[in-house]
Amino acid sequence: MKKKVLGRFIIIGVLAALAVFYLLPNIFHSLPGWWKQTMPSRGITLGLDLRGGLHLVFEVQGDKAVEITLDHIAESIRNDARSKDMEASVEIKDGRIVLEHQSPGMAALIREDYPSLDAKGNGVYELPAARVERIKKNSVEQALETIRNRIDQFGVAEPVIQRQGENEIIVQLPGVKNPKRAIDIIGKTAQLEFKIVDDKSPVAAELPGFVNPGEEEAILQQFKDKIPPDDQILFQKEQDPSTGRSVRTPVLVNKRAVITGDLLSEARVSIDTRYNEPYVALTFNAAGAKIFEDVTAKHVQDRMAIVLDGTVYSAPVIRERIPGGNASITGGFSTDEAKDLAIVLRAGALPAPVKMLQNVTVGPSLGRDSIEAGKRAGVIGAFLVVFFMIFYYRLSGVIADFALGLNILFLLGSMAALKATLTLPGIAGVILAVGMAVDSNVLMFERMREELRAGKTPRAAVDSGYDKAFWTIFDSHVTTLITALVLFQFGTGPIKGFAVTLSLGVAINLFTALVGTKTLFDFIHSRTEVKSLSI
Amino acid sequence: MIEFIKKPNIDFMGKRPFAFAFSGLLVALGIFSLIQVARGAANLGIDFAGGTSVQIKFKETVPLQNIRSALERSGLKDFDLQDLPTENKILIRVKKKEETLGGFSEKIVSTLKEDFAAQKPVVDSTTEIGPKVGDKLRKDALFAIVAATIGILIYVAFRFQFRFAVGATTATFHDVLAVFGIFYLLGKEVNLILVSALLMIAGYSLTDTVVVFDRIRENLRSRYRENINKVINLSINEVLSRTVIVSFTTLLAALALFIFGGEVIHDFSLAIILGIIIGTYSSIFVASPVVLLWKSKKLLGKR
Lengths: 535, 303
Hints:
The structure holds 2 protein chains of 2 kinds.
Chain A: H1 2-27, H2 33-38, E1 45-46, H3 48-51, E2 53-60, H4 62-83, E3 89-93, E4 96-100, H5 106-113, E5 118-119, E6 124-126, H6 129-154, E7 160-164, E8 168-174, H7 179-187, E9 192-196, H8 202-206, H9 216-222, E10 231-239, E11 246-254, E12 259-260, E13 264-272, E14 277-284, H10 286-298, E15 304-308, E16 311-314, E17 326-329, H11 335-347, E18 354-362, H12 364-417, E19 421-422, H13 424-453, H14 458-490, H15 493-527
Parallel strand pairs in A: 1-19, 10-16
Antiparallel strand pairs in A: 2-8, 2-18, 3-4, 4-6, 5-6, 7-8, 9-12, 9-15, 10-11, 13-14, 14-17, 15-16
Chain B: H1 16-39, H2 46-49, E1 51-57, H3 64-73, E2 79-84, E3 89-94, H4 103-115, E4 122-129, H5 131-159, H6 162-185, H7 192-222, H8 228-260, H9 266-285, H10 287-294
Antiparallel strand pairs in B: 1-3, 1-4, 2-3
């Protein structure tokens, strides 16, 4: 008997030590460096609702990635046709490539050079469904990678960047001070293009000098039928020099980009010494530098529009051939804006635009208040319960409190070990677990009292109290566990947090209530023949 | 030995008519509230309705009227204002099913920062949720509840009898509906946090019910010749002290959370307190009578 008790004590002791071990980072805020490197250094992670920060959900517009791919293919077909002196107008209609007025050789050319396109007859071509799926899937993965890069460069401690479902990306940024900047950095597609401005077209001369924000659509409608087929109208954000108001200047540019952001090797912030204004300095890689040099040589005296996500930032005149692959983006930035722009350009463009579905921002002060209040309430609540149990059940109450303490310790310890996050609903789970821990003990104690009343010896009362309460405890725990597991499987967000603490709490409680307290009772009874039970 | 309740002998089953009338009222209220939610007439949180909510803290009290007029001047419409006077905080909500997020909260914050610069507004939290997410969260929550219910029905039916499962499920739904109804009456917001609280209530209520059932089952084995009403009454009385003590201790923890836990957790702990009280009541007055109602035979099997 004695030996069995000792064995159980050792198990409990080892488990408790393990829990404390995992919780050390929460207890001591400055652990030595070697600890942080080799040992668990996170402790319990608090949810954003408790410590402040951003929780964002983005949807990757995979359809747009497919459109972009189609655009590229169409462009490439146009170039091939041009280089072989063939006629073809290549358009994209309803997600299909449509060739009109095609020369006789075009069908053969596409069959040979673009074998992945499905011919649907009459000059209509389609991307195979499997390819479309793959593009969509890849776009989500690439977006995830790009966003991760951007956040890394922006510098956030412990960010969470995860995929959710088919095409959603969750981003959690704890403790971010300036949410708007973070959202802008993640959300910017950052598609950088250089396009030659078509000032020679008569249409360019007809364009108004500037329009007010919101009137862009009207201009596009007005010129819809006049724009040359290879051109498009983009707008530049500017300030009206006379009034200082923000206006939009329409610019007629070639549809085709002469060079794009994927050829960049470097983007950083510099300061223009004349106006003391920050700008983003770009450096192209070797291939990009070569193209840039050729293009600038060919277009001396033309203007080159620097376009980011469809907005013209500047459109300077090319004075001479520019070797070396350096360019710059100016546009009246603040230092932060220039820095952020450099980050997104360095990290690369998103393969498809993303749409923000959800944005929950908890300010740092509210987060701090919540933690403090939560801790205080937890400690006070626990003390009340502990005190009451001792008051009502005397020595047995102390034993119950011991089990309760173990329960909370194990629960928090296992949450730290499993890297689970403690959220506000998670605290509810802890309370319920504490309630169940007390419940198990009360059930047993009330049983023991009944047995004592029936005239049994203390030891027999304890044993039969445990035996009879066992199945009740088991049933009530299993039903709760079913709820918790279902919630864990199907719930999202806060509900999941609740389910995690609850299911852990229930499982741990089965152990502490049935093994923990019994060990103590057995320990007491193994040493002396107890005459009365303090219950 | 300290005992709050010594050898009780209360005729719980005899008070059935009153209990059913009272519970009927609570459940009716809960169902009415659910209908109101479905109609969109309830105070649905941003989580489910979609939209924007901004909570701002000021250094000193700012009259709601001033904030309202400032926001209206800046061109905002259709917003709700709510203040938490104890902490100089206001909550602004715009329930709009906007496709693109971002515009509203920025506008609200910049307007207030400009117009009330002297009161040093600080943004406590902003939440923006697109309509798609709201739909998904609503569906997920509903699905989780249905799945958990089925799981419990199966387990309780397996361990006890089907009629016990019906009783346990009825009592659980009774409690969740009752708390939901009371929250609706109080004009509280229906959001994901409330759903978490309701789930915890369901868990608590179920435990409570299972403990009573367990004793009934045990007593039925030895007293299967006796009147079922009597056996149930006896069982409830036997576990009454346990029921009261457990409810009391859990209530202590929940009360600490309610009083000291801070504003974020306030409504949540209120729901839990209500749930504990109602859950305790239902395990005594609702669960067992329903078991009897389901099939009114004299004997309740052997098992």
